[in-house]
Amino acid sequence: MAAEIIYGKELAQSLRDQMKDEVSKLRDQGIVPGLTVILIGDDPASKSYVAGKQKASAYVGVDADLIELPESTTEAELLTKIDELNQTNQVHGILVQLPLPEHIDEQKVIEAISPEKDVDGFHPINIGRMMTGKDTFYPCTPYGIITMLKSKDISIEGKHAVIIGRSNIVGKPVGQLLLNENATVTYCHSRTANMEQYIAEADIVIVAVGKADFINGDHIKEGAIVIDVGVNRTEEGTLTGDVDFDSAKEKASYITPVPKGVGPMTITMLLHNTIKSAKRFHHVPLDD
Asked: Annotation-wise, does 166 bind a ligand?
């Protein structure tokens, strides 16, 4: 029996509709959630991501301000701009679009953003709060993955989750969020010996390595849940994930497609975090 497909695009739309109602009520109270995105340089992929964030923000009613800076912007100039935004009450979320030019220290920039406005969930204080099971802003893609699993009433507790990839943006935090939900978590990466053995034992497989068709149906066990975070462009120009979808869907119980899978959830959770930040600032009770 083929897997049930978890369409992140559909779930994201449903959540954004709920957020639209929520923001409308906040605006009635004079509270306007504000997100500022800083984009440095002319990277086409980054521009595309930012455009998607602006469009989604407009849909739910979040005020999204874009600050575009030239590639030549110095680290000091960027840190000054972030400091200004940290002190601007109308700004509830600050996002610096990555990657940054080589002359700017990415970690220094992440740490310069106030933890109260770090809607990407990358600040060490927010990562530490996540590690210790405290309420915080969770990194958007991992948070989106957990939300997708819960949307299908998939029980995470007691499951063996194997994470392929250990980036600070996806791999490490999604493992921690699964651990917080009482899963047993194994991380695999480029130095892992016998990776196939771990994948074959996994109840939940999350693949985030950036290599097209890195795993296929032969690698996974019958009934596994497969979450594909990869986005790769083929020679023909189409998008494909890290999982060979056609073969994996014949063995998995649930699987996410690429596109229309995890991607739309990332921006949705960014909006969630921005609204949450605005509510915190204005002492509005939080739902979650």
From this structure: yes
* Positions marked active-site: 53, 97, 120
Q: Is 114 labelled a binding residue?
A: no
Pick the CATH number of 29-113 from 3.10.50.40, 3.40.50.300, 3.40.50.1370, 3.40.50.10860: 3.40.50.10860
Let me know: does 230 contact 206? Beta carbons within 8 Å.
no
260-269 residue pLDDT tens: 999 999 999 9
| CATH superfamily for domain 140-263 | NAD(P)-binding Rossmann-like Domain (3.40.50.720)
165 appears as a binding residue in the annotation: yes
What is the per-residue pLDDT across 1-37, written as a single tens digit (0 to 9) for each? 789 999 999 999 999 999 999 999 999 999 999 999 9
d(CA 259, CA 14): 17
- For residue 120, give the DSSP letter: T
Distance CA 48, CA 56 (A): 12
